[in-house]
Structure formats: structure tokens, C-alpha cells
Amino acid sequence: MTELSAMILDRIRDVPDYPQPGVMFKDITPLLADPVAMAAVVDELAGLHQVDKIVGIEARGFILAAPVAYRAGAGFVPVRKKGKLPAATLEESYDLEYGSATIEVHRDAFTPGDRVLIVDDVLATGGTAKAAVELVERAGATVAGLAVLMELAFLKGRDRLTGVDLHSLVIV
Ligand SMILES: O=P(O)(O)OC[C@H]1O[C@H](OP(=O)(O)OP(=O)(O)O)[C@H](O)[C@@H]1O
Ligand SMILES: Nc1ncnc2[nH]cnc12
């Protein structure tokens, strides 16, 4: 295990039975509260790919993706839950470990040919990440990679993302 992985693992809190019985929720707030660990995470994610845009997935993905975009000198594009973006959108629906959701991106969020890194906190079933990849591609950009803080391997999200360059800072 790398020093960075150990630092992340040490700052993610397990909360049993949230938001419903049987789910072990990975709470990233202790990591967010630690400026040294956050700086290390943001620097690592910003160095993964040379891209034009960083895509963040609402809501926890935003917290990581915006500083990564700043650090990488790239633009930031929000992928939001349905009904939150004001202009014309594309949408994708998917199932979660604890429910279902629809996410959207602005149709004009990308310049054709933009290379994009998608950033989120947790990869669980992969439903969110797969929907985000599809949205970005439908909007005319190329997904250079997908980066998450933590991958929950037992939920096999990786298997739904064949062909995507997936980088997980911690796999549990
Ligand atoms: O791999 P999956 O099974 O799709 O799960 C992963 C997603 O679930 C969480 O988001 P959530 O929808 O709970 O929203 P939040 O960030 O607004 O809390 C997490 O931030 C990922 O986006
Ligand atoms: N167990 C979990 N903890 C935190 N975020 C999640 N998103 C989906 N499953 C999750």
C-alpha cells in the first residue's frame, strides 16, 4: 500500500446501515477536513491525465473535481442530478447501491474533441460512473480516464466499465 492510500484509508469513516440497513457507507468528511491529505489527493488526481476538462459528479464528486480542475489548469464541468442544470441537457438514468437516479450534463458543456477526466469519490456498483461516461461521450468529448478515491471491489463496478481507464486511489 502506498503512503497516499494509507492516508486516505485512515480518513474514510465506515458508517453502518446508512442510508439504509445493510449498506456500509464510506464517509469522506474526515478526509475533506484534513488539508494535508486533501492536497495530496488533489495533486495525485490532477497528475493522472493531460485533459481539457475535469467532470465532477454531484454532489461529493464536485468537492474533489473542482480543486483538481484548478490544479490541472483544466475546465470544470458539472454532471448534476436531474432538474438542476438550467440550459439544454442530455440525461442518463441508472441504479445505485441504495436506489436509482438520473444525471444530466449541458449539451454544450464540451468543445468537440475535448479530452476529459471524470472524478468521483466512491465507485460502488458503477452505475453512476457508467452513466457519466455515456453522457460525456454523447456530448462529444473523449473520456481519457475515470478517477475515484475509493473503489468498493465487492460490488464489481469495474466490470461495467470495460474500455475505461479507471484509477482508484484505494480499493477495498
Ligand atoms: O457506483 P454507484 O453504485 O453508482 O455509486 C457511487 C455513487 O454513489 C454516491 O453518490 P450519491 O448518488 O449517493 O450522491 P451524493 O454524491 O449526492 O451523496 C457516490 O458519490 C457516487 O457518485
Ligand atoms: N457504500 C457507499 N458509501 C459511500 N458512497 C456510496 N455510493 C454508493 N455506495 C456507497
TrEMBL record:
Keywords: Cytoplasm, Glycosyltransferase, Purine salvage, Transferase. Residues 50-151 form the Phosphoribosyltransferase domain. Its EC number is 2.4.2.7. Gene3D superfamilies: 3.40.50.2020. Pathway: Purine metabolism; AMP biosynthesis via salvage pathway; AMP from adenine: step 1/1. It holds the Pfam family Pribosyltran. It is found in: Cytoplasm. InterPro entries: Ade_phspho_trans, PRTase-like, PRTase_dom, UPRTase/APRTase. It catalyses: AMP + diphosphate = 5-phospho-alpha-D-ribose 1-diphosphate + adenine. One of its GO terms (molecular function) is glycosyltransferase activity. Signal peptide: none annotated. Catalyzes a salvage reaction resulting in the formation of AMP, that is energically less costly than de novo synthesis. Belongs to the purine/pyrimidine phosphoribosyltransferase family. Homodimer. HAMAP family: Aden_phosphoribosyltr. NCBIfam families: apt, PRK02304.1-3, PRK02304.1-5. This is Adenine phosphoribosyltransferase. It comes from Nonomuraea maheshkhaliensis. The lineage of its organism: Bacteria, Bacillati, Actinomycetota, Actinomycetes, Streptosporangiales.
